[in-house]
């Protein structure tokens, strides 16, 4: 796969998202120096289910806190259940108080 290097970098950043916090596809893309590559971040996280290592892709949502990647998990509610197990409230596929839980690698990894 020609995107292996980018995907690997996405996985490295995603592994750094603390439990109980969430980031966005765009924030990860900006941190990696590719601000227009939010969809590519999503593709990487969709692909991570094929890896041996657990990548906490459930901690990445869209810029509005919507669980836009939920369909890529084994069940329709798995992403929500994983977030709720970390203390994050999700209602109608949207993270409540998103700004409270938002983890920005551009600020938190400086």
Notable characteristics:
single chain; 110 residues; Arc Repressor Mutant, subunit A; two-stranded parallel ribbon; 6 helices
Describe the structure.
The structure is a single chain. This protein has helices at 4-16, 25-31, 38-47, 78-85, 98-101, 105-108; strands at 23-24, 60-61, 90-91, 94-95. It has 110 residues and is mainly alpha-helical. It has a two-stranded parallel ribbon with strand order 1-2. It has a two-stranded antiparallel sheet with strand order 3-4. The protein is globular, with a radius of gyration of 13 Å.
Largest sheet, in brief, is: 2 strands, parallel
Task: Give the SSE order as H and E letters.
Answer: HEHHEHEEHH
The CATH class, by name, is: Mainly Alpha
* Tally of strands: 4
Stretches where pLDDT falls below 50 for ≥5 residues? none
Q: What is the spatial order of strands in the main beta sheet?
A: 1-2
- β-strand percent reads 5-15%
Q: Over all CA atoms, what is the radius of gyration?
A: 13 Å
Proportion in helices = 40-55%
Compute the number of helices.
6
Record the SSE blueprint.
Elements: H1 4-16, E1 23-24, H2 25-31, H3 38-47, E2 60-61, H4 78-85, E3 90-91, E4 94-95, H5 98-101, H6 105-108
Parallel strand pairs: 1-2
Antiparallel strand pairs: 3-4
Helix pairs in contact: 1-3, 2-3
Short description:
The protein has helices at 4-16, 25-31, 38-47, 78-85, 98-101, 105-108, and strands at residues 23-24, 60-61, 90-91, 94-95.
